[in-house]
Design brief:
single chain, about 220 residues, alpha/beta, 4-stranded parallel β-sheet, 8 helices, 8 strands, elongated
Length: about 220
């Protein structure tokens, strides 16, 4: 007979009712494809102000836990539902998954994968989507602020002030809310994201006879 701690571990491993149902359907998908299946999602549509629902460094620990003891020769089917998150965390996560499964990773987007979620999908060898599915632009976030939005705001301010200096009082409080180096950080984040996705596509989804070809079509917008 198991002792009390063993029973508690068994109960915790079984999970909640929702988790039991989720595992059952993930098992069915595994039986159908013969591949490893991991679902990576958060309740960000239902809990928009909840912290931790975006891609972050802690997520890799979760992946390391579930990947442990998997047969990596079976590849990975990754089900994505995410609003995106930190660029550095996204790079680290993709590097880890590729170290485990190479480029034999397929992305499934049942509803939404935005920003960093789009980047993760582009790192896979194929993306499966339904008519209701959507990928967002590659739009890196800095402290929850969209880098593209900041750059566009600065460009608009520069244009309007150059044409009409009387617009300075209007734009001054808007621009003042950003730190002095923030615009540069946003520009670097955009360039970094574009370079990462280009490299992932060239070495994964678009790898073939024209490997190394320029992918000028890949841009954040």
């Amino acid at each position: 007979m198991p002792d009390w701690n063993q029973l508690l571990n068994e109960i915790n491993a079984a999970g909640s009712t929702h988790d039991i149902v989720r595992r059952r359907y993930l098992s069915k998908l595994h039986e159908l494809t013969g591949r490893n299946v991991i679902i990576y999602y958060s309740g960000w549509l239902q809990k928009r102000n909840l912290e931790g629902v975006e891609v972050n460094d802690a997520d890799k620990n979760g992946f390391m836990t579930v990947v442990h003891q998997l047969d990596r020769g079976k590849g990975l089917d990754l089900i994505l539902h995410t609003p995106g998150g930190e660029t550095a965390a996204t790079e680290s996560l993709v590097d880890y998954l590729r170290a485990m499964f190479g480029t034999d990773i397929r992305a499934f987007v049942p509803q939404l994968a935005l920003s960093a979620g789009t980047m993760i999908a582009c790192a896979c060898k194929v993306i499966f989507m339904g008519k209701q599915s959507s990928l967002g632009p590659i739009d890196p976030q800095l402290g929850g602020i969209a880098a593209h939005g900041v750059v566009e705001e600065f460009e608009r301010a520069h244009k309007e002030i150059s044409e009409d200096p009387s617009r300075i009082p209007v734009w001054q409080p808007i621009i003042a809310k950003y730190p002095p180096t923030f615009i540069g950080e946003c520009e670097k984040a955009i360039e970094w994201s574009n370079e990462m996705v280009t490299e992932w596509l060239q070495s994964g989804m678009f790898k073939g006879p024209e490997e190394g070809a320029s992918l000028n079509m890949i841009r954040a917008r």
